[in-house]
Design brief:
The protein is an alpha+beta fold and 233 residues long. The chain contains 5 helices and 12 strands. It starts with a helix and ends in a 6-residue tail after the last helix. The N terminus is likely disordered.
Length: 233
């Protein structure tokens, strides 16, 4: 049975940022899982975009993942073969990713590298049994506000929750963080983890050039900056 015929069409519309014969790039809203967990959720990004594009489920495949809270650029392949090729680009570190994050406090160094091992897992119940793996994050400060810093983040490795863990470990957890820091320890409040996938670059399938796609800062993060206008230093 075609799943798109057995469920009502979701009211949400996911913006398309780019399309060619191999892939589609969407601007993911926060609050959506990319793929179902073991609870077998239906209302996920993968089900919505297949249905939105008028395709049977299993036509578009994510080439990478974003956390439920994270908004922004996400790359989908048209078919399994394209997915495998795009995922190979990620494994070979041929994909450049840039995020925008708001972190508590004033980051001391205007740019730097965070190299702290991270447990890379998708099934949390097995996390305690997995060894930590090397993880590297580059960052640059974009702006300082009274109680937080705006940083552009470039993860070199792609461990689960890497950005959130790394900034918490160096004492600047993301605004809205509730897993790797205690919200009650900070005056600032945000309804989600303040992290946005801003830019993605990857090789063309024919090897002749690079594709670059950007997503405008999510509205809730943009509004947060407006609310604190005049506090930047």
């Amino acid at each position: 049975m075609n799943i798109s015929q057995s469920h009502p069409t979701p009211k949400i519309q996911i913006p398309v940022l780019y399309e060619d014969e191999h892939c589609l790039v969407f601007n993911k809203p926060s609050g959506l899982l990319v793929i179902p967990t073991d609870k077998n959720e239906y209302h996920t990004l993968v089900s919505i975009v297949n249905q939105q594009q008028g395709l049977p489920q299993g036509s578009l495949y994510p080439a990478h993942r974003l956390d439920r809270d994270t908004s922004g650029v996400i790359l989908f392949a048209k078919g399994k073969d394209c997915q495998q090729k795009l995922m190979e680009f990620f494994r070979a570190k041929q994909v450049n990713k840039s995020y925008m994050a708001f972190v508590h406090g004033h980051v001391a160094e205007p740019r730097g590298k965070i190299r702290i091992p991270v447990k890379d897992f998708h099934q949390r119940k097995f996390a305690r049994h997995l060894p930590a793996q090397s993880a590297l994050t580059h960052y640059e400060v974009e702006d300082y506000y009274k109680n937080f810093t705006v940083v552009r983040v470039m993860p070199i490795t792609g461990r689960t929750n890497q950005i959130r863990i790394h900034f918490a470990k160096i004492g600047y957890p993301l605004v809205g963080e509730d897993q790797y820091a205690f919200r009650r320890d900070f005056a600032l409040r945000f309804r989600r983890t303040a992290l946005h996938a801003l830019r993605l670059e990857w090789p063309k399938m024919d090897g002749k050039g690079i594709i670059t796609v950007e997503a405008p800062l999510a509205a809730d993060m943009s509004n947060f900056l407006k609310q604190h206008k005049g506090e930047n230093t």
